[in-house]
Write a structure and sequence with these properties.
Blueprint (H helix, E strand, L loop, with lengths): L21 H12 L8 H16 L11 H11 L6 E5 L2 H7 L6 E6 L4 E10 L5 E5 L4 E5 L2 H5 L2 H5 L3 E8 L2
Antiparallel strand pairs: 1-6, 2-3, 2-6, 3-4, 4-5
Length: 171
């Protein structure tokens, strides 16, 4: 995933349709970027694809609470086979360091000190360690340095200050 493959910083990819479809937006974008296809014609269908992914990923979880890491993983396994397999891992320093070397997009759950709240998608890393991150609230790709988690500035870019978990691609 390192290097410059895929959308660059400043790209507009598609915005989540409401306050709880960040996870489904990340799912649909992961499917599209890894060659699993886009569930429907691109721009006009992004909102419908988010809603469908939300229903499919949250069979036993209230949609108003967002999408669980396990629902995200199950959806990717069922609906985005080209994305490969993923493991749900806590966002430890070791797991976050491994994000930069992943060869596929990495869904990342961020939140407050007490609650996980928002999914983003790490698309790649530059040589200086800066990540390219799809942030579905704005629909844009942003530059983010993981040191921002330690210095308290992550919320400026990701919308939330703390990492909670990653869906780590299985080699």
């Amino acid at each position: 995933m390192g290097g410059s493959g895929g959308p660059e910083v400043g790209s507009v990819l598609g915005r989540q349709v409401d306050g709880v479809t960040c996870g489904p937006s990340v799912l649909v974008m992961t499917a599209a970027l890894t060659g699993s296809g886009w569930p429907g014609p691109a721009a006009e269908r992004f909102g419908a694809a988010q809603r469908a992914a939300h229903r499919q990923a949250n069979r036993f979880w209230p949609r108003a609470l967002g999408t669980t890491p396990w629902g995200m993983r199950a959806w990717l396994h069922r609906h985005a086979p080209a994305a490969g397999r993923f493991r749900v891992r806590p966002a430890t320093a070791r797991e976050l360091a491994a994000v930069a070397s992943a060869r596929r997009p990495v869904p990342l759950l961020v939140g407050t000190r007490r609650l996980p709240r928002h999914w983003v998608l790490v698309l790649g890393a530059r040589a200086d360690g800066t990540w390219r991150v799809y942030e579905p609230g704005s629909g844009t790709v942003r530059a983010f340095h993981p040191a921002a988690f330690a210095d308290g500035t992550a919320a400026r870019t990701l919308g939330m200050p703390r990492p909670w978990c990653v869906l780590r691609p299985v080699p």
